[in-house]
Input
Amino acid sequence: MKIATYNVENLFDLKYSGHEYEEYIPNTSWQWNTTNYRKKIKNIAQVIVDMNPDIIAIQEIESLQALKDLRAQIQRDGLYLPYYAISSAKSTSIKVAILSKFPLRSQELRVTASYKYRNILEVKVQLGNEKLYLFVNHWKAKSGPESKRILSAKVVKKRLAQLGDINYVLLGDFNSDYKENETFVRKRKFNDTNGITGINHILKTTNHNEAVTYQSLQQCSDCAYNLWYELPEDRRWSHKYRGKGEGLDSIIISPKLADTKGIEYKVGSFNKFDAPYLMKKGKIFRWQRSRSYPKHHLGKGYSDHLPLYATFTY
Output
């Protein structure tokens, strides 16, 4: 079973709701119209079909309509993902969602009442005699300090404590590098938490300031393992900021997925999907907008993130 995650970069529908970014208000001079919408849907579907996941978590999708349109295009292109869920309880401009070959049950975890914080989507999948829980995340961007991302991390950790010893996968866009505890410490703009990070300290992908490894996972029942460590260091990025690679997206697993019983992570199967068409001149070939005025969508490109995937046995 292949599980993937993909921030699809602003997949807005064509219905005006009042929450859109200016460039995605339908049928303005920006040309977010039927033609460009269909091109964006087709391009994102191509990536997903080529990856061929059994379950995929999606970030930055506006609505259930956009999700259904994407799912329909994926099916036309040969991949059937009949089950779906989206975090639609809040009128946020972009949401998280999931598509799956397996039946699922979902609920939303509210971070705060503010529409500025996206809900976390909790999904339960029954696999034989066991359950697998997936938590789809899209934490606050780095326009704000770490304390804002810690709010989301604490909501996830509290829910995991309620559920106990379960098979879980945390995935999505955490807007945090896999070693955020090392990279943000000297950045006063982010470090308003005395060096504590959501992804490392709250989710416990580090333990006593050491990165949790697959081998050490069994010695720490409330720790988690970030699969980025399976790749060589120069490949540990899914997004680029000012030319520098960052691992903002992650797939993180529980100790129970590494105990050699039941549902298991297949060691060495984690990777990022970076097919040649997703790259251009060393940069991620994101969705393109004109630089000249009047600014508009060009109908080319994919997303500013690369997707990640990992394989599990059950």
Observations:
- The chain has a mean pLDDT of 95.
- Residues 200 and 210 are 10 Å apart (CA to CA).
- The helical segments are 34-51, 64-76, 146-163, 180-183, 198-202.
- The first strand starts at residue 2 and ends at 11.
